Amino acid sequence: MNNKLLVLGTMAYDAIETPFGKTGRILGGCATYIGLAASHFKTQCGLISIIGGDFESKYLDLLKEKKLDLKGVVQLKEEKTFFWSGKYHNDLNTRTTLETQLNVLTKFNPEVPSKFKDARVVLLGNLDPNIQLEVLNQMTTRPDLVIMDTMNFWIESYREKLDQLIARVDVISINDEEARQLTQKYSLVEAAQELMAQGPRYVIIKKGEHGALLFHGNDIFCTPGLPLEEVFDPTGAGDSFIGGFTAFLVQQEKISFEEMKTAIIIGSAMASFTVQEFGTKALENLSYGELVKRVQSFKSLTEFEIELI
Ligand code: AMP
């Protein structure tokens, strides 16, 4: 058993608008959020991504400082970094994508560094399913766990490839809207069952501030969202969630539904930090002690004794 975690995803520039303010171009991308979340755990985490010449070296330094392995990150000097801008509505649970500039992503031929070809866990972050499949195909040993994420952008135009990928993963993590879009089922229980029938043994459905559900066979576990006084920017919450979830699992000797129950609490705690500041700031500054305290808050929030006579 090794503690290697391979993460595929975007390293991006984002521009975000929420009811509390607007950012200029800031650091974003799912691999960035996942990597920063994973850096709080004892794993060897390698990122696979692509960036343009405009990607500032201070951000690469930040990721290196967090002990993330960047051998799988390619920089094309002549190209521009992937750019995404989004606007959140008043409830902060829904957002509209204002612009997606794929830029350098259209030139992406991922290459898994030899060190990570036997990674115990592979996390295929939200990206073109062709690229997600390509990375999976380059693994020399079948990972103990393959986890995937996706979003509406890819569901709408890459459905066939996406279905091929879904059939090959152990865990799919998506939000409620995407689960409904993928399965055409309104009931999330039915949607999860339909997804499991396609291949994954585990389905995670994220419900924004309302928490997340974990499905496995007939078992269901749920975590609430932590009621927070201040939420500034939900960007990256899903990625921080799955980054924390996955990195915790890499540390476990056995990976089953039981360990995943703990992992989704940890993922939720991680996400609860991300939303409290714009961009990646909260994850960058988080200490392990603060994370532990917040996991305790989740426990207190849901723990109760009941005796029915
Ligand atoms: P989340 O809020 O967790 O769903 O993820 C937000 C991050 O996803 C942002 O930092 C974006 O840069 C990135 N992103 C947005 N659209 C895409 C896309 N189509 N493919 C990959 N990453 C994306």
Task: Determine the N-to-C terminus distance.
Answer: 48 Å
- Write down the domain tally: 1
What is the rounded Rg? 18 Å
Report the count of strand segments: 14
Which fold name corresponds to the CATH topology?
UDP-N-acetylmuramoyl-L-alanine:D-glutamate ligase
Q: Which kinds of small molecule does this entry bind, naming each only once? A: adenosine monophosphate
Backbone structural class: alpha/beta
- The total of helices stands at 11
Helical content (DSSP H or I, runs of 4+)? 25-40%
Percent range for β-strand residues: 15-25%
Overall CATH architecture? 3-Layer(aba) Sandwich
Q: What is the 3D shape?
A: globular
**Uncertain runs:** none
Largest sheet: 9 strands, mixed
Can you list the strand order of the major beta sheet? 6-5-1-9-10-11-12-13-14
